[in-house]
Amino acid sequence: MKKIIIAVAIMATAIVQPSNAQSGNQLLNNVLNAYLGVKNTLVKDNGDSVRAAAKILYNAIDQMPMDKLSATQHNVWMQYNEKLSYDASHLKETNDIDHQREHFANLSQNMYKMLQAVKINTVDLYYQYCPMANDSKGAYWVSEKLTIANPYLGAKMPACGSTKDTIKKQ
Predict the structure, then answer these.
(1) Strand, coil or helix: what is 163?
(2) pTM value?
(3) Mean pLDDT, residues 129-143
(4) N or C, which end of the chain is more exposed by having fewer CB within 10 Å?
């Protein structure tokens, strides 16, 4: 009887695992969605919310099961994961919105480069730019919306910026 129960448990696990297993595309999209969560909270000027969203992003980056990525995805991920992790770590460790926005600028550039290389997005994405961000040096971000919602200037100038590139859905 004990052997039958163990066999049933093993079979049930084998049946459940494939449906729970995520592909490399899905896992990378989890990182993208967490990034978009950070971007959307920056728009609202709330450092505490940004910090919470950044923890989700950091965990998605940190816990990436690289064995689930294709060879191409793995190579690209190896180029960008430390850079993404570094900035996500800084974002999650403070609620100082200005400091968060500084790191978001670097995070966004690396996210854009990674997205261009892996081509996993399931919706069109927009690479947007604000010339007044970053002490008027300018800064970019990736958005899921064509309408500008500026993560660098928030409520001060929410529509400041323009779309510079579109990453077409795959």
Answers:
(1) strand
(2) 0.86
(3) 96
(4) N
Confidence of residue 21 (pLDDT cuts 50, 70, 90): low
Angle at 104 between CA 80 and CA 96, to 5 degrees: 135
Most confident stretch, 10-14, 56-60, 67-71: 56-60
Residues 61, 77: Cα–Cα separation, whole Å:
10
Rg of the Cα atoms in the chain: 19
Closest CA to 140 of 130, 150, 149: 130
From 3.30.200, 2.60.40, 1.20.120, 3.30.750, which CATH number describes the 2-120 domain? Answer: 1.20.120
How do beta strands 139-143 and 125-130 pair? Answer: antiparallel
Task: Tell me 92's DSSP state.
Answer: H
The pLDDT of residue 132 is 95
Query: Any alpha helices (H) in the chain, and if so which ranges?
Result: 2-20, 24-43, 47-62, 71-92, 97-118, 133-136
